[in-house]
Design a protein that fits this description.
The protein has three helices and eight strands; from the N terminus they run H-E-E-E-H-E-E-E-H-E-E. It has 139 residues and is α+β, with helices and mostly antiparallel strands.
């Protein structure tokens, strides 16, 4: 059995110490690099309730394919205890994850998982906006 040391090089060591995605090992308080973590596609869906949002048209203008959207839990929502609000990068409410798709996603978010969305397609059906999105979890 060989125990030779391998020189990882300055760039790799710098990445491992200062770059990449860092996470905390549960309960240990130790941060470890996760340079190969990939987002996990959870769901392909649409933004529900956009026609209820005021001025949503102007918020949609800058959105392009793959624009990142923020998902926020609304456990106190009187209409849906699993409600997940969809916002643009500026914090403008665009709508919600559809009720028929939100229970598992809400439970993941409530358990501390990082879930976000990206715009897949944006179009208008008459005066009604239609935005499809992909939901991802970072793990």
């Amino acid at each position: 059995m060989s125990t030779n040391l391998v020189n990882a090089g300055g760039e790799l060591m710098d990445f491992l110490h200062h770059g990449g995605s860092l996470t905390t090992v549960s309960g240990s308080g130790v941060s470890i690099p996760r340079p190969f973590a990939k987002p996990i596609l959870l769901l392909k869906t649409y933004i529900a309730g956009m026609f209820f949002e005021k001025n949503v048209g102007k918020f949609l203008e800058p959105l392009e394919k793959d624009s990142r959207l923020t998902l926020l839990r609304e456990p106190e929502n009187k209409y849906d205890k699993f409600a997940i609000r969809v916002q643009d990068a500026q914090g403008n409410r665009l709508g919600y994850v559809p009720r028929q798709n939100n229970m598992v996603i809400a439970n993941l978010m409530d358990a501390g998982k990082v879930v976000y969305a990206t715009v897949r397609e944006k179009r208008w059906n008459g005066n009604t906006p239609d935005v499809t999105m992909d939901l991802f979890m970072e793990d």
